[in-house]
Amino acid sequence: MIYPWQTDDWSRLQQLRAHWPHALLLHGEAGIGKLKFAQHLAQGLLCEAPQASGEPCGQCAACRWFSQGNHPDYRAVVPEALAGLVGVSDPGSTDEKADADEGKKTRVPSKEIKIEQVRALLDFCGVGSHRGGLRVVLLYPAEALNIAAANALLKTLEEPPSGVVFLMVSARVDRLLPTIISRCRQWPMSLPQPASAIAWLEAQGVGDPAALLAEAGGAPLNALALASDENRPLRDFTLAQLAAGPNCDAFACGENLQKLPVPTVLGWLQRWLYDLLAQRTAGRPRYFPNAAKALERCARQADAAALASYMKTVTRQRAVENHPLNARLVFEELFIGYRDVFAT
């Protein structure tokens, strides 16, 4: 099933059924359910007795195979690190590397979609349908394609095999090759209305859903994850330090946050800076409305030029956030820089 806020997207998408594109690019904010939507769409395309709405019947042999993760005309291609999300192994993605990885018990799963996976996919596309219908390929997230894999996929998209539909899902279209984008039918997935998202979060038993939804940028799945985030005490500590403005203790931040992933802390910091700017220019924060008073105080104290310069610094740090840097030193430098925004 799709999420309640996706019914409109689903209805509009059915207009394409008469002339279904060979490649569909579903894109939108992270945390709104694009992957589940794409999986439901794939099942609907493979279903042998679809409903009038285009949704799968859930009863036919094709639907049962899909639910069990072994439909012969379906492939899901994801990075190794995300294999658990789709429940379908990508053929050829591990066998070829077994010898190379032998004995490497601590090998970190790849976060990229590699060329070996795309090559295995091309073999799948070259075989006829087992059930006489469509063959469906799901790629998630499309921005995880490395350069070699993207170029290999591009050749297939330029000369698409008959009867094959590519469903590509992305939260960062800006990271895709323009040539790949140009060969897909783009389909923007909309953010849910706050009332709909809050009602869904309440049904999941989430407390204070409005605040969590705001912090998640309106993405309900991210808000749900925040509700059970084991790092929430450290997130609260970080926000308290940021709210202190010129009194922020950079070294305490480095000490307490050093075991956290750098991208996680950078995310908190960037959202706070965005709200500082929003408070300064529009008088209304987006991500942390419950911290409006602290944001207003910090916005008054901050030097505008220093704030703009610091935001660029944080953005540059984002570009190397996954590099094996010393997290404690990174955080100390970042929070010293934040404190300097308020220097007179």
Automatic annotation (TrEMBL):
<dbReference type="GO" id="GO:0003887">
    <property type="term" value="F:DNA-directed DNA polymerase activity"/>
</dbReference>
<protein>
    <recommendedName>
        <fullName>DNA polymerase III subunit delta'</fullName>
        <ecNumber>2.7.7.7</ecNumber>
    </recommendedName>
</protein>
<feature type="region of interest" description="Disordered">
    <location>
        <begin position="88"/>
        <end position="107"/>
    </location>
</feature>
<dbReference type="InterPro" id="IPR004622">
    <property type="entry name" value="DNA_pol_HolB"/>
</dbReference>
<dbReference type="InterPro" id="IPR015199">
    <property type="entry name" value="DNA_pol_III_delta_C"/>
</dbReference>
<feature type="domain" description="DNA polymerase III delta subunit C-terminal">
    <location>
        <begin position="243"/>
        <end position="335"/>
    </location>
</feature>
<dbReference type="GO" id="GO:0008408">
    <property type="term" value="F:3'-5' exonuclease activity"/>
</dbReference>
<dbReference type="InterPro" id="IPR050238">
    <property type="entry name" value="DNA_Rep/Repair_Clamp_Loader"/>
</dbReference>
<keyword id="KW-0239">DNA-directed DNA polymerase</keyword>
<keyword id="KW-0808">Transferase</keyword>
<dbReference type="GO" id="GO:0003677">
    <property type="term" value="F:DNA binding"/>
</dbReference>
<dbReference type="InterPro" id="IPR027417">
    <property type="entry name" value="P-loop_NTPase"/>
</dbReference>
<dbReference type="Pfam" id="PF09115">
    <property type="entry name" value="DNApol3-delta_C"/>
</dbReference>
<keyword id="KW-0548">Nucleotidyltransferase</keyword>
<dbReference type="Pfam" id="PF13177">
    <property type="entry name" value="DNA_pol3_delta2"/>
</dbReference>
<dbReference type="GO" id="GO:0009360">
    <property type="term" value="C:DNA polymerase III complex"/>
</dbReference>
<feature type="compositionally biased region" description="Basic and acidic residues">
    <location>
        <begin position="94"/>
        <end position="107"/>
    </location>
</feature>
<keyword id="KW-0235">DNA replication</keyword>
<dbReference type="GO" id="GO:0006261">
    <property type="term" value="P:DNA-templated DNA replication"/>
</dbReference>
